[in-house]
Design a protein that fits this description.
- The radius of gyration is 21 Å and the shape is globular.
- The model has no long low-confidence stretch (mean pLDDT 94).
- The strands form three sheets. Strands 2-1-4-5-6-7 form a six-stranded antiparallel β-sheet.
- Helices cover 44% and strands 21% of the residues.
- It is an alpha+beta fold and 332 residues long.
- The protein has two domains: 104 residues, 3-Layer(aba) Sandwich (Rossmann fold); 181 residues, Glutathione S-transferase Yfyf (Class Pi), Chain A, domain 2, CATH 1.20.1050.
């Protein structure tokens, strides 16, 4: 699917903005703070259903009471989203819905400057990064993760309440155990797949023989639902004292190992960038293999963070995709 145009109204700092997209590469050029990333954010909302960086109230242009974004595809289809300060509505083929229909979702490779610091980020940032990848590849994973987070919030609210009753946690414990064992199993499967491609992809970028792998760390790994449930119940006293759930897949982490050492501290700045590039290329490959679609590539000012050889590698790997990128300077 090729995007032909995107229109924004009262979106971030844009009162009115439109972009006509090229079939191959479109460059959004401008100084920092002029709203380049906002255009990518709008595209992401209309292809994935939600923003990658904010909630809807934060997106409305200051001093206005709504925003609207509209996307047109090369086949003549259009999709729009409006937010009136209370409710976000998606409009597809004159039909309205509160969520982007699954059939209208399109795979995206989103590359942000902050991704280049993934290895040294906090565990939560790494979980979010891989959850976005796995959710695109697997709708069941995405739905399960959403339900897990909702159940976790409910359990934590009970733990913080003044009238805590142990029995009131039981139903949420069952849901967390069922979804948690599925999520950890799925995460392990996808990380195993990524690891099978990671070294060769990395070598093609860095042109060396370094070893690299991702270690999926989870206290839940290989547990049955019953064992997971038992652990939640055993942690009741500690959880009620702390006011949150101390056991579960929401504490998982992904550790990068470089030449058998932790990559954070042993991999150089250039080597780290090669690892992240490899991850992006693998993500695109998995999307094509599993979903049988070519993802849209959104690059937010990442060229300024890469040297010439890695820029060329990025261009070469995504030359057969539609690419929309932002930059503070013209790119030859």
């Amino acid at each position: 699917m090729i995007i032909k145009s995107i229109k924004l109204t009262n979106f971030r700092n844009h009162s009115h903005y439109s972009l006509e997209c090229q079939d191959e590469t479109s460059l959004i050029l401008g100084k920092n703070g002029c709203g380049k990333t906002s255009v990518l954010e709008a595209i992401y909302i209309l292809t994935r259903g939600k923003s990658f960086r904010a909630t809807d109230p934060e997106i409305i242009k200051r001093g206005t009471d709504f925003y609207r974004i509209e996307l047109s595809y090369s086949n003549g289809e259009t999709i729009a989203a409006t937010y009136d300060g209370k409710v976000k509505t998606f409009i597809t083929l004159d039909k309205k819905s509160k969520r982007l229909p699954s059939k209208n979702k399109y795979p995206i490779i989103l590359f942000l400057p902050s991704d280049l610091n993934l290895i040294s980020h906090a565990p939560g940032r790494r979980r979010d990064y891989f959850d976005l990848i796995f959710s695109q590849l697997d709708e069941t994973y995405s739905t399960s993760l959403t339900k897990y987070k909702k159940a976790l919030r409910q359990r934590n609210e009970i733990l913080k309440s003044d009238r805590l009753i142990k029995e009131s946690l039981f139903s949420w414990n069952i849901i967390l155990a069922r979804l948690g064992t599925y999520i950890t199993s799925t995460r392990e499967q996808y990380i195993t797949k990524i690891n099978s491609l990671l070294e060769n992809t990395y070598h093609s970028i860095a042109n060396n023989t370094d070893t690299i792998q991702i270690i999926y760390h989870s206290e839940v790994k290989n547990l049955t639902e019953q064992t997971y449930l038992n652990q939640l119940e055993q942690n009741y006293q500690k959880d009620s004292y702390l006011g949150h759930t101390t056991f579960g897949i929401h504490r998982d982490d992904y550790l990068f190992e470089f030449n058998t050492n932790p990559a954070d501290g042993s991999a150089s700045r250039g080597e780290t960038r090669s690892i992240i590039l490899a991850l992006k290329f693998i993500e695109a490959k998995l999307i094509e293999e599993i979903l049988h679609q070519k993802p849209l590539i959104l690059l937010d000012d990442v060229f300024s963070e890469l040297d010439d050889s890695r820029r060329r590698c990025l261009v070469e790997n995504f030359k057969n995709h539609q690419v929309i990128l932002t930059s503070v300077e013209d790119i030859e």
